[in-house]
Amino acid sequence: MSRLAKRTDQVMPFYAVEIFKQASALNAQGRDIISLGIGEPDFTAPAQVVETLNRAAAAGLSGYTSPAGLPALREAIAHYYQQQFGATVDPSRVIVTSGASGALLLAAMALINPGDEVLMSDPSYPANQNFIMGAGGVPRLVPSSAEQRFQLSAQDVRRHWGPATAGVLVASPSNPTGTTIEHDELRELVSEVRQRGGFVIMDEIYLGLYYGDTPRSALAIDDDIIIINSFSKYFHMTGWRLGWMIAPQDMVPAIEKLAASLAICAPSLAQHAALTCFEPEVMRVYDQRRLSFKQRRDYLLPQLERIGLHVPVVPDGAFYIYADISRYSQDSDDFVHRLLHEAGVATVPGRDFGPAHAAHSIRLSYSTGLDRLKEAVERMEGFLARA
Question: Where is 122: in which H helix or E strand?
């Protein structure tokens, strides 16, 4: 066998997927497993979107698009950002990608040189580290506390920025915590990075699933932030592999050049179908579903506290809860394994998201129906009574 590249040893494993495999195997054996692990909405694309896909396929619209995506879709995304998040975006700055993963790949390839450090909060989504390493960079996890909402702060930038630091990668709302960065804190963080000549990549994948009054994009603070977003979560199109990035105007030619080689284009039928996502009738469906996620969150939070799983920071977005299990265990791997095999409830151990809180934290996803969440709580309560 040929010798593998060293980076294959450096790639961070994704334990949520491993738990999903175990849960699937138990399901295949006839066990009833309630999944609070994988971050995939139980909703799928609305019927109108599927109908548009079928019409596009029947019309033969499956050929390549331009590397940056369909012009009409780029315009629709720009309009969506203006209408929903108060950010004025020129459609020429929108690059349609093969999921948010494709956008992160392009951003990393365009911005990171070998040896560059990128600051990220601990906890954070593990796959993001792999995009940085794939471009030759070095992800540097900065432990964050509940007091700072488990988010990177301006003080962190001042304290941890070094000669090799090139920028920061931030997510708001975040996976695994569901927390957002307060707008004033984000403004200060961006200012600190700009003073040092660095870049800001902002993951806004869950921005549509915000439960406060008015969600605001980071673009409202600084027009040169690189935005990553996706049709997977808010638009419930996980397997369609469609996302986008919004790049500063002077980056667009380089991004398009990279996109043409690395992906040619995002899936064309998915692009045609995605145009329907922004129709008023369909947007009303998405908002109703957002409220369903909020209802699930509002049910789970007091129930988890009642059974002794403390939630240090109330999530205000996404569909995740980052819970403290220290009342019962200081080994989240063992806790998650036992919870799955003894109670039939799948969750994710803390080590998936960084070492700072790994031993005593787990992530729960409420991307499943309220009836199943109620049953999951009953099972967990019984399990914890035996713990």
Answer: strand 117-122
The whole-angstrom separation of Cα 281 and Cα 98 is 26
d(CA 72, CA 95): 12
Write the DSSP string, 88-111: ---GGGEEEESHHHHHHHHHHHHH
Query: Residue 331's domain spans which residues?
Result: 7-44+282-386
How far apart are the C-alpha atoms of 245 and 227, rounded to whole Å?
A: 5
Same domain, 21 and 91: no
For residues 186 and 221, give the distance between their C-alpha atoms in angstroms, rounded to a whole number. Answer: 8
Please give the model's pTM, rounded to 2 decimal places: 0.95
10 Å Cβ neighbour count for 241? Answer: 18
Strands of the 165-171 sheet, one edge to the other: 94-97, 243-246, 226-230, 199-203, 165-171, 117-122, 138-143
Same domain, 168 and 293: no
Q: What is the CATH number of the domain that holds 381?
A: 3.90.1150.10
3-state secondary structure of 285: helix
Residue 17 and residue 164: Cα distance in Å, rounded?
A: 32
Beta strand 138-143 with 165-171 is unpaired
pLDDT averaged over 10-residue windows placed end to end, the chain, 387 residues:
83 82 92 93 96 98 97 98 95 98 97 98 95 96 97 98 98 97 96 98 98 93 96 97 97 97 96 98 98 98 98 98 97 96 97 96 97 98 93
